[in-house]
Amino acid sequence: MVLVVVLVGLIVASRINLNDYAIQPGTAQPVQPFITVPADKAHPVAQPVLLTDVNVTRVTALSYLYFRLQGDTQIQPIVNVIGGTPPSEFDAQGTVEMDQAEAAALTAGLRRLGYTVTTRAVGAVVFTVWPGTPAWGKLSVGDVITAVDGTPTLSANAVTTVLHRYHSGQTVTLSVERGGKGKPVPVVVTLHSSVVDLGPGPSGKPVLVTVDLGIQPEDQVTHTYPFPASIDVTGIGGPSAGLAMTLGVIDALSGGDLTGRTRVAATGTMDDQGNVGDVGGVPQKTVAVERAGAKIFLVPPQEYKAAESKASGGLKVYAVSTLDQALAVIAAHGGHVPPVASPHTAAA
Question: Is the dihedral of CA 151, 155, 158, 163 positive or negative?
Fold first, then answer.
């Protein structure tokens, strides 16, 4: 009887979610298998750059003590990890961010090699839908809004500007590409004012805003590349592999020996202009890349101290805020970095 009670208690505890996430070291793996370029332009890569991630797990009443006892695990309140994002949308947001990161990384890498890449605004992608608002249940993260009542909306700002013409109680018809694919379908929404908690602000107090539709839109753009090329990272969400992906593109198209056979790992977002942005989970990522045998770890400047605190003598950490800085570090350690090409040198 006692055993039955204990088992029931364990089952119940495993299903009670606490308001915390556990952040643990993930993997450090070669970026090259995720990158596809034409066979006549590709080079075998001798020592691929490593991308790294973290495992983010919802803490339960049962797992709390286990995570607390893990030296390389951080337990963070939900609000510190996802802000005001509904937990149900966390994974979907990661997918949207990764899609955007892949496109920006490919663009930055090709442009660094002298290829011309053009971009075109095509709509506003839904990044958040807040519960209790008119959009809840009608729109999903990843949907792309291309028009409001027939007025084209090719950016997040365009959606906001058009909606300012309406007031609470009015009905609008949105043209929506479901999941960002296919032909737009009409979605009818009746606007009403809702107060949304965006999570803690700089003072630690909740940031409350009033919305009539209930979404956070972001710009959706499409890129035209000089030849068929793609990055498709599966099983990882978020934009933090951007720098590693960009280096992988350059490696594949410039000779295959970018790192000089030194094991290099990188984390940081990448925009299409070659700027490196801040990411989270760097202490845990440092543990992962060191376990994978990396000798150099490139991180955003904001995360340098966090990475240094976890690195041993065998791993050198460097702060980089641009792609050019990252390439300079690699060159200084024997890497074979291609010269800067003019936009016309390599254009297809």
Answer: positive
Domain check: are 109 and 232 in the same one?
A: yes
Query: Which tens digit of pLDDT belongs to each residue from 300-342?
Result: 999 999 999 999 879 999 999 999 999 999 999 999 999 987 6
Pairing status of strand 296-299 against strand 316-319: parallel
181 and 314 co-located in one domain:
no
> For the segment 73-96, what is each residue's pLDDT rounded down to a tens digit?
989 888 777 777 787 788 889 899
pTM for the whole structure: 0.87
Q: How far apart are the first and last CA of the chain?
A: 75
C-alpha distances (whole Å) from 294 to each of 49, 54, 197, 239 are 9, 16, 41, 21
Angle 273-278-280 (CA atoms, 0-180°, nearest 5)? 140
In whole angstroms, how far apart are CA 255 and each of 61, 77, 294, 335? 52, 45, 21, 11
What is the C-alpha separation between 111 and 88, in angstroms, rounded?
Answer: 37
